[in-house]
Amino acid sequence: MKLIIFDFDGTLADTEALITQTMQKTIEALHLEPRSREQCRAMIGLPLKETFMRLIPMTGEMGDRCVDTYSQIFGRDNRPGVVRLFPHVADTLAALYAHGYTLTIATSRHRESLMEFLQGMQIDTYFRYIVTVSDVAQAKPHPDMVLQTMEYLSIAPADTLMVGDAVYDIQMGHNAGVHTCGVTYGNGTRADMVACQADHIIDDFGQLGSLLL
Predict the structure, then answer these.
(1) Can you give the three-state secondary structure of the chain, one letter per residue?
(2) Which of the two ends of the chain, N or C, has the fewest CB atoms closer than 10 A to its terminal CB?
(3) Per-residue pLDDT for 80 more than 90?
(4) Distances from the Cα of 96 to the Cα of 15, 72, 154, 158, angstroms
(5) By C-alpha distance, which of 132, 72, 122, 63 is closest to 97?
(6) CA 183 from chain center: how many Å?
(7) What percent of the chain has pLDDT over 70?
(8) How far is CA 174 from the centre of its chain?
């Protein structure tokens, strides 16, 4: 294995509470039909507009309003320390980087928001390449993010591992023909990872070191 592609939300950082609360506040602010935290959580990993349009029947125009409102609320509520790395992420990334693995990110988050998190968490220097939802024609679970990353770095599917917490991450990896590793501590469950046939499943990010080092 040479290349490791990571999802961000629910894989590297614990953003679930902030995301689901922001989604519910957005729905309330726009006087839409309420959705539970679990219903919101199940959408994490998709682009924002698609998230809201899947959650609640609505027009594309309303979907755009949801995105704008969400962004405003998220920016207001995302105070320092609200979002933290999962246990063993920082030291495992450092070890993988030191051993010569090429580390990258493929995320449904926009670049400005992602970079703010990475820099604040002091892990930005580990990642050689980043693909966000704005950089591809088709978002997860389409393979575009993974294919673009491999093409840019000239690394073959056989040498690539996709690591994520959502079914969409694993499906994206399968669709790109790469190895996959599902994590169970984020927004997806072990049952989810088994059902989508992840090649490897870990319950703690540190286990990735045991798998690869």
Answers:
(1) CCEEEECCECCCEECHHHHHHHHHHHHHHCCCCCCCHHHHHCCECECHHHHHHHHCCCCHHHHHHHHHHHHHHHHHHCCCCCCEECCCHHHHHHHHHHCCCEEEEECCCCHHHHHHHHHHCCCHHHEEEEECHHHCCCCCCCCHHHHHHHHHHCCCHHHEEEEECCHHHHHHHHHHCCEEEEECCCCCCHHHHHHCCCCEEECCCCHHHHHHC
(2) C
(3) no
(4) 23, 36, 19, 18
(5) 122
(6) 11
(7) 100
(8) 16
Question: Is the Cβ–Cβ distance between 107 and 114 less than 8 Å?
Answer: yes
pLDDT at 155 over 90: yes
Q: Are 202 and 86 in contact (CB under 8 A)?
A: no
Round to whole Å and give the CA distance between 180 and 43.
20
* Strand-pair partners of 22: none
How sure is the predictor about 81, in pLDDT bands with cuts at 50, 70 and 90? confident
What tens digit of pLDDT does each residue of 174-210 get? 999 999 999 999 999 999 999 999 999 999 999 999 9
Contacts of 191 (CB under 8 A, 6+ apart): none
Sorted by sequence, the CB contacts under 8 Å of residue 57 that are 6+ apart come out as none
Q: Give the span between the Cα atoms of 90 and 123, in whole angstroms.
A: 7
User: Residue 200's pLDDT is what?
Assistant: 98
Token readout for 207 is: 């286990």
Catalytic-role residue among 7, 165, 169, 192: 7
Cβ neighbourhood burial of 20 (10 Å; 0-12, 13-18, 19+): buried
